[in-house]
Amino acid sequence: MSTLRFHAIKETLTRKQVSITENVRRSSIFGLNVFNETAMRQYLTKEALESINDAIFKGDKINRIIADHISTGMKEWAISKGATHYTHWFQPLTGATAEKHDAFFEPVGDGQAIEKFGGGQLVQQEPDASSFPSGGIRNTFEARGYTAWDPTSPAFVFGTTLCIPTVFVSYTGEALDYKTPLLRALQAVDSAAVAVCKYFDKNVKKVNASLGWEQEYFLIDSALALSRPDIVLTGRTLLGHSPAKGQQLDDHYFGTIPNRAMQYMRDLENECMLLGIPVKTRHNEVAPNQFELAPIYEEANLAVDHNSLLMDVMSKIAERHNFKVLFHEKPFLGVNGSGKHNNWSLSTDTGVNLLSPGKTPMSNLQFLTFFINTIKAVHENEELLRAAIASASNDHRLGANEAPPAIISVFIGEQLTNVLNELENVTTGKLSPEEKTDLKLNVVGKIPEILLDNTDRNRTSPFAFTGNKFEFRAVGSKANCANPMTVLNTIVAKQLIDFKDEVDVLIDKKGMKKDDAVFNVLREYIKKSKNILFEGNGYSEAWEKEAKKRGLSNNKTTPEALKAKISTKALDLFEALGVMNKVESKARYEIEMEEYVLRIQIEGRVLGDIARNHVVPTAVRYQNMLIENVKGLKEIYGESFKTLAKEQMNLIADISKHMESINSTVTKMTNERKKANALEDIEKKAHSYCHKVKPLFDEIRYHSDKLELLIDDELWPLTKYRELLFTK
Ligand code: ADP
Ligand code: MG
């Protein structure tokens, strides 16, 4: 095994970087492989193009004859881009993307063939994807699911395949993917926000949620990554002693991007340009070999698709550069893990960002309305938001003394805190003209000015306001953004509906003016949601105590956190807004709990295997060398060998102790796994894996990492942290 390690190291040392040449301006290739407006104009009839636009902007249905026109145009375009196949591209609940390719090619008899792609094939497909998780919705042997075209996300050509973004639903109508509930949530927030906007501007007809994600990742040489069975099978290292140098010098963060990584990024960015993914920034992150990439924000559904696509593309391009991309939230102990900040805002079809302070008191009142409603939505649904980002891998970050904590709170900065404090004192009932003038001039009117100061940032907050958007920072790097985006948009939609109801009551029943009513409702909201606001250090122990006093949840593990998804409140909320019915919500809960169990189970197996079959035998081998040495010393020096061989004999004993601990803990872990596996109830099973099986990983690791320090480097079979993290 150690030969594999040294072979891998040798391979990385002889790597030649793959150089990328860019001959054209990036803007000139942007979206070249996307069936976008420009391509559609060229390949579709006017009628077909209008029909697609009506589907995108008004949600209209596309009829079969038009669908045939569209598919023909799309096929011709795709073939011109070198496509030979097409696929419905979707995001099943595995979190990854799925595709099944079919050729355009079709024999027509007499030894002849044509390229064919009909409207039916564009609109709907049955992928026979019966093995995807469905949480019991879909009996694997009977009702099948189907994929249906989502015209709001444009088709694209990747490699030689035309990819058509689709939703994946069962024949009984339940969502089997991430996209369907997201689309429903976006629709809910659209209509709820438009209704509230009407208080301020009658012309608003549509509100879009925007998402700008920031993707963190590790880039490891592929030979080194492949030499570690834990990385190959679980995406993270289960063992490995910290290197002498980690991230303590902060010399990687925002430093010069290493050359090989740079070539990879350029290659990747080129592909992103062709695919219409508007990537904009790249930089080194805190940990060695950790990087980040972020695009310009887009409409949320498209942004989610682009992030899923990007993760695929990143892995594929990495192969060309002999890299492996690690998306896991915590691939290495002792250095920072990876996240995926979700920057979120709402904007109108009239071009206004509802979370950006405006130029007039009126537009600022609109801003404050959306700002305060979002805070209240988060306050009332903090547990659900926490559940939306729960996963076995993200547990390593949240609540594990690393960015951000498992407690959800909102950071808004000092100036906005002051604004809210002022608004909290607004008179109950009708406002006097003087008070209104004062509010407009001195409170609401002053917002734009103060927000220019952008230094007021708190990196420890899981949900922070950053000037014109909220940044949901607790999302995991591996996650599909659809999940948190579905929850966030749903809770905000619900909140806006409630807000409108309350304001209308004050206007209709109490005869208040609109502004007075808005101020009155906002005042009460500020009072009610104060507990979610926190400006201090989110990583501190003091905050844990304080949050507990405030009644905020602190669900540190996935099984605990996920429960919020099936609370009566959550089930009713999703159902009432038409995002998910109860069957769908419960199915998702089951799937996520099941996935949690499977992940920990796999890690347990891999760890047991490495510890027993790689680490212990190596320890025995080294111990034998030491024993031979001691015997030799005794032979030469007789009784005085005891002084001469003292260190060796201590080592022999230490090695034995660690081996014994490893062996007995692996046995204990295997037994705990067996017990857990025997449990029928998924909650009990997940609980066992979380609290009985997983803690033993640390114990095994502790002893193995100690052995790593004791044993001859030449013999050690697992590629070490310093090799994984510092080979560029
Ligand atoms: P950082 O948090 O690293 O300082 P930036 O300010 O560069 O990040 O922005 C990070 C992300 O936020 C980018 O993806 C950007 O497109 C996105 N973003 C910027 N403005 C908005 C907005 N109004 N709505 C949603 N996302 C936005
Ligand atoms: Mg950020």
Description:
With 728 residues, the protein is an alpha+beta fold. Helices cover 51% and strands 12% of the residues. The protein has 26 helices and 17 strands. Strands 9, 10, 11, 12, 13, 14, 15, 16 and 17 form a 9-stranded mixed beta sheet that branches. Strands 1, 2, 5, 6, 7 and 8 form a 6-stranded mixed beta sheet that branches. It has a two-stranded antiparallel ribbon with strand order 3-4. The model has no long low-confidence stretch (mean pLDDT 92). The structure holds adenosine-5'-diphosphate and magnesium ion. InterPro entries: Gln-synt_C, Gln_synt_N, Gln_synth/guanido_kin_cat_dom, Gln_synth_cat_dom, Gln_synth_gly_rich_site, GS_Type-3, GSIII_N.
The CATH H-level homologous superfamily of the largest domain: Glutamine synthetase/guanido kinase, catalytic domain
Tell me, rounded to a whole number, the average pLDDT: 92
Can you tell me the CATH class of the largest domain? Alpha Beta
Tally of alpha and pi helices: 26
Judged by helices, strands and strand pairing, the structural class is alpha+beta
Domain count: 3
- Estimated helix fraction: 40-55%
Cα distance spanning the termini: 23 Å
Shape: globular
Bound molecules: adenosine-5'-diphosphate, magnesium ion
The Cα radius of gyration reads 29 Å
Q: How much of the polypeptide forms β-strand, as a percent range?
A: 5-15%
Architecture per CATH nomenclature, i.e. the level-2 architecture of the largest domain = 2-Layer Sandwich
